[in-house]
Amino acid sequence: MAKTSASFTLMDYTDGISLITGIDSNLPLTSLYDTSNQTLNPSWAGDTSLQLTPVVRKAGGTDVVSTMTAKAWKRRIAGSATWTTVTSGSNGETINATSGVLTVSEDKLTTDVWQIDYQFSGTYTDPVLNLAFPVTIVITLSRVANGTSFVVARAYATGGSQFKNHSPSSLSVKAELIRGTTKDTTNLDYQWKKSINGTVWEDIAGATAATLTVTPSMVDSFAMFKCSILDTDATSDTFNISYDTEAVSILDVTDPYQAVIESTAGSYFKNDTGSTTLICRVYQNGEEIDGTGVSLTYSWTKTDKDGTAVAFTPTAVAHGSIVTTKKKAISVSHDDVTVKATYFCSVS
Fold this sequence. Notes:
- This protein is mostly beta strands and about 350 residues long.
- It has strands at about 20-25, 30-35, 40, 50-60, 70-75, 85, 95, 100-105, 115-125, 130-145, 150-155, 160-165, 170-180, 180-185, 190-195, 200-205, 210-215, 220-230, 240-245, 250, 255-265, 275-285, 285-290, 300-305, 315, 330-335, 340-345.
């Protein structure tokens, strides 16, 4: 007959990985075509070259495109089953071998081509699992035909559409009013709006410029932004008419916080003596954040030996570089524990 027993649980969380993928464009995905003048806006050849940036992030990590092998781009005219391999340096297309960025300096949406697909592919080999993961991403670009009197508002993200762990510090979304294929930049009022569901929109206070600066604090996982552009030119045919852009989605793929409570004096009191300091450590992507307890807020609760909530007022203490301001560290003595107590900390 056994006199005692014990157990220890091992868990492996590396059975699989998640890859977050996408292709960022520095220009609108839809070009406007003036049938009278046979001009495009934007023109990849005459205005700003199109840049397509592949984004492949490992959940809990950083962008891995630079480490991928067999990186390649292909294109096809929409509706075709045949993909054509893009050769860097030919046909107005250049590929950065490290970042995978494709630069297109030649208009492709011409003659009878109204829509074109670009495909990025490559292989990511995970250094932990030593397994290869093939990646394929497709982006579609198109053009629409406008008459010279046609007016349309559009918006697009100019330098990416994702935040991760508060980086970058900001993203930009640009709004434009196009007449035919000419950009109108005078006598216009702008009002940016935000939505988290695409249905309810709220004005963003002070966001009245053509370009909206979006910071990580404005995006909780997902947010959509659009702009209402009002023509204030009294001599214009569209005076006092407002045009709404399409919505631009911005994502926050920030790694989640993980909280761990440490006790400076272990888990037990004995013979009605002793005290300990409980410290709530917060980690993100394996790194401790708010090490001094000044930026996050720590809310402590307690249950007794039966799991029943017990009202108590946590006593904040300084510990090393930790300050008392947000109660990251609290003091617990043997008088606070009857047989058993469990402490919880919610971080916000």
